[in-house]
Recover the amino acids of this structure.
DNA sequence: CTGTGTTTCATACTGATGTTTGAATATGAA
DNA sequence: TTCATATTCAAACATCAGTATGAAACACAG
């Protein structure tokens, strides 16, 4: 057994070089880890990579957060209070005609996805969670997903004159949500299929406007004539076109 | 440096040796690896887990496929010829009214997602690829994603009277695609938000029917009165936004 | 200054994973 | 049989990741 541990010979250098100006290591780790976790996912992201990017020691994560999962939990918990979500919530809570609220929600959600100043790493974490769930997914859904969806159900239910827990209301809510989420979840597909699409604010506005139009077309039509749609109880028989 | 491929003799059948499924190790590995890769993703899936499940030696993967990526490539390549895709292609190619084709495509795609006999591991691989792309994603997109989307563009473009590469056509195609994909990509979200939703064939039909109705409402409306909507889209002619 | 508690650091340990290797076994032909 | 090839196997190797540890560096009260 050689317990002889090589003592450090000499002082390497003054590390007061870049003290990361008054930013505590803990905060820096949280910031860097957020982006790296969002980029690689929980499992593929390594503590060493995070610590190098944060100019911290490998042991810093264990010291400040216990272990890797502790850091990740903090990152997710922090991302749940992001400003982007507040935009969506306030859009849902405002007092306005339902159609305006729906437009505002769609736009807020899309804006939160692709911002130029802040990267969209909050949502990229969700993408990884959907592919490979960790214990954080339950909290993400119960704290964010379910409440927001519940409000969307109430909004849409009110617009089509059905209770929030009606199947039709839920279908419509998923239709709206799907149109939005595809721009986050299927981003590589989007880029491959539409290479020259630049996610400028103007482009995002156009997309949001389209999604709202696309959705409102059906919602208005359903409200004015619900019986024509709710007929699809079990088997849709032949897909005969409605009167043109 | 080893042989990249075992020799090929035309002797596929030789099961008299072992009654316990003397399926060649190579095929068994492919089969098992498909499910495990779809479940855990490329990185999280381990060769040992695959080999144990396939009752093969750890070295079997390296012997038959060179390395882990070689096995994964074969799995993806094999999944691209799955029967599910053929259903979508044939739905797109059939000679029928455009609205019927759209309904058939939506339904085929949804059916391919959740089947009771066969698990949906082909699409679950796509979910992982979207979260953490591997070299296989490029092939997946160029071989499957882009051609299918191109046909969808032509179909919808024909329905709304715009060229396939018009922005409005693409927006509509994404609206349709998003409504479908959300049921695959956001499955955990779906289950949490709608726990008592059973993916029976009847339920899938109802969903497909709804998505088609939801989408056709806008498409029909746009076709009958395009000018009311194009004020926001950049039709190649007039990019004027400020309508005063 | 000294002492004490906190933070950072270099380093080592443990386990897991992809890969290699060389021997052992099976297979089929001369 | 004997030989050549194909395949399987157990074991080892190399690397990397998460974690642990003890000392050094720091901050600050006394």
């Amino acid at each position: 057994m050689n317990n002889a541990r090589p003592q450090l010979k000499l002082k390497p250098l003054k590390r007061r070089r870049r003290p990361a100006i008054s930013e505590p290591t803990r905060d820096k780790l949280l910031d860097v880890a957020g982006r790296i976790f969002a980029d690689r996912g929980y499992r593929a992201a390594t503590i060493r990579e995070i610590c190098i990017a944060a100019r911290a020691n490998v042991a810093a994560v264990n010291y400040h957060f216990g272990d890797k999962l502790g850091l990740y939990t903090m990152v997710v918990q922090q991302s749940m209070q992001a400003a982007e979500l507040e935009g969506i919530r306030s859009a849902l809570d405002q007092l306005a005609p339902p159609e305006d609220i729906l437009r505002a929600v769609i736009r807020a959600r899309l804006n939160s996805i692709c911002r130029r100043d802040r990267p969209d790493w909050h949502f990229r974490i969700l993408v990884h969670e959907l592919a490979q769930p960790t214990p954080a997914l339950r909290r993400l859904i119960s704290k964010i997903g379910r409440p927001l969806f519940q409000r969307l159900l109430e909004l849409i239910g009110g617009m089509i004159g059905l209770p929030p827990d009606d199947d039709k209301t839920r279908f419509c809510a998923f239709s709206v949500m799907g149109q939005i989420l595809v721009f986050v979840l299927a981003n590589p597909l989007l880029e491959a299929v539409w290479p020259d699409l630049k996610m400028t604010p103007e482009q995002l506005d156009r997309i949001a406007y389209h999604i709202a139009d696309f959705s409102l077309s059906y919602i208005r039509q359903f409200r004015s004539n619900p019986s024509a749609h709710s007929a699809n109880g079990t088997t849709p028989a032949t897909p005969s076109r409605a009167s043109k």
Q: What stands out?
A: Residues 5, 7-8, 15, 46-48, 58-59, 61-62, 67-68 of chain A lie near DNA strand D (CB under 10 Å from a C1').
